[in-house]
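Pasting as-is:
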Amino acid sequence: MYDIIIIGGGVSGTAAARELSRYKASICLVEKEEDVCSGTSKANSAIIHAGYDAEPGTLKAKLNVRGNEMMGKLAKDLDFPFRRNGSLVICRNEEDMPALQKLLQRGIENNVKGLRILKKEEVTAMEPNITDNVYAALYAPTGGIVCPFGLNIALAENAYRNGVEFRFYTEVQDIKKIQDGFALYTNQGMLEAKYVVNAAGVYADKIHNMVSGKKLHIVPRAGEYCLMDKGTGSHVSRTIFTLPGKYGKGILVTPTIHGNLLIGPTAVDMEDKEGTNTTREGLRQVMEKAADSVKNLPISQIITSFAGLRAHETQGDFIIGEAQDAEGFIDCAGIESPGLTSCPAIGEMVAELIRDKMGLEEKADFITTRKGILNPKELGREERSALIKENPAYGNIICRCEMISEGEIIDAVTRPLGAKSIDGIKRRTRAGMGRCQSGFCLPGTMEILSRESGMDMSDIGKSGKGSQILAGKNRDLL
């Protein structure tokens, strides 16, 4: 019997775990995949939104602004990449100015700092590659970009260090109310908890509907993206949005925290909760609409495309709180954009709610900080030379595109909640994220993972069970 079980290892679940680990309680996080950051949190725009878009008075509005405010200190404490690069929402003609003014007013009501509308001359001076058809733009200096993998993994590692237990490959199949809480029936056996936090992403409706008569319906909203090679991120300095529409903020153009250029997403509602395939039509739409906002896009330098799913709940707002007819069951559902931005505030809200209901006592020894994987590229020449002399693995470059060393990959595998797959290493180190997309470094990465984890080479997968890389004659040769 745990005090609290959290379902879901994305940014909402791990943020709640980290905040709850401030208190004296037995806490377990269960995740159906092999790692944290395996769902919506791994495939998104990586944007820290300023907070002008959400309807005033909604949870989205409140938690967006609070999460944005928290992000700087959190990035420093937990050592993940984050930068306030600012954002622009452009309009192309005078007829659209009322919509831009409405966004400004909405942002002011949401207490977003520094918002102002720029004339065409100011916009083009700020972003020389903006479309020639720009008429004006809403400038939000508090907007930012982040590494979503780094954020998610940092939250999880810090929660783990503060005593949260993590169970992977653990899928919740049913939940029953019992006298002292809930019984969770999983593919790994039964678990019990006094309180349950439902942070299951696109599956949060399924989990909620196991215990509540007031049903939720989450529609997976697919978004496709194109990512361009490192160095293209200087094409624009800020995140460029168009005026929002029915399905969200439209196709954006943004630098990434690592120097790439990202364009997307589309917005297509579907019922397939695993529908992360890209389409010819979707990618064509991304490239065409991005070109309407930013000229001279280096489309020839696209190195990969991907799709992610947003958990759109039909009520249109975040659903955070105790289910009306299931005392002790805390929903954290419908967490779509701006969920990544809001996650620190979501975790804070969930933790405070449970703290007050359970009367939890704060720990005196809560560990507030976490150190990420050492990046030799950030060291000075002398420091790097000394590091390689002390540990030659940091001088053995495995991924040439991203210049990732054997030492970094070893750290990714052996640290708490370490990587167990090629994608797990990729999200922790960027090995395989460059131009060749693992074409060169895959064998070396697999060898290190096998050696450091004890996994057989034939069992190593791209991402979890059923994704083994070696098959047929390749496996027979081992």
